Amino acid sequence: MKFFIDTANLNDIQEAVDLGVLDGVTTNPSLMAKEGIKGLDNVMAHYKQICEMVDGDVSAEVIAVDFEEMVREGEMLADLHPNIVVKVPMTRDGVKAIKYFAEKGIKTNCTLIFSAGQALLAAKAGATYVSPFVGRLDDIGHDGLLLVQQIVEIFSNYGYPTQVLAASVRHVPHLIQCAEIGADVVTCPLSVITGLLKHPLTDSGLATFLADHKKVNS
Ligand code: E4P
């Protein structure tokens, strides 16, 4: 399973890189805004900086909503760095753009997936990744993990190469259940990745080992 970090924060990205387990990055316009990145030149420079920090795919989202503009923006993003994956929303124009990018050999991540039908459509158009939003479905009383399970099963039934990128993963149990289901990738904040480190019995066990060692070595 691949681990992507869902942030535009360079410190968090560096911390995940340093841990040695990071396979890629996802960003979105809200995450870029959270870091105060504005203006085309700054946005492009920020994506480039992320690409240079990480050996893996970096999703950069188009802002355009019509096909021609999506294509123009996506090609500009893809030209920036080989790690760039063009993130495209699940809309009619988005599906057309995914098809266009697939034919040009440009990688895509179809975002804002909330149904199995949307995921199927994106896979048929040739998306590299589909991003079902687990947490946002849970937020409205639906079962986000069930959607991930459905998509994994459908793609496996037909051998679609599109990877299931479980997004909006909010806590450790989400991540573990995505792994059990067989999602290809999860994207989540740094706190979820570092949350995997933690167990109280590890902490108390290590404290005991060190204390016992000290007793006979001091
Ligand atoms: C996916 O690529 C999105 O950036 C992200 O996972 C959304 O997560 P959120 O619902 O916690 O904002």
UniProtKB/TrEMBL annotation:
UniProt-listed InterPro entries: Aldolase_TIM, TAL/FSA, Transaldolase_3B, Transaldolase_3B/F6P_aldolase, Transaldolase_AS, TSA/FSA_arc/bac
Gene Ontology BP terms: carbohydrate metabolic process; ketone catabolic process; pentose-phosphate shunt
SUPFAM superfamilies to which the protein is assigned, alphabetical: Aldolase (SSF51569)
Keyword Transferase: yes
Catalytic reaction list: D-sedoheptulose 7-phosphate + D-glyceraldehyde 3-phosphate = D-erythrose 4-phosphate + beta-D-fructose 6-phosphate
Keywords, comma-separated and alphabetical: Cytoplasm, Pentose shunt, Schiff base, Transferase
Role of this protein: Transaldolase is important for the balance of metabolites in the pentose-phosphate pathway.
Name the UniProt record assigns to this protein: Probable transaldolase
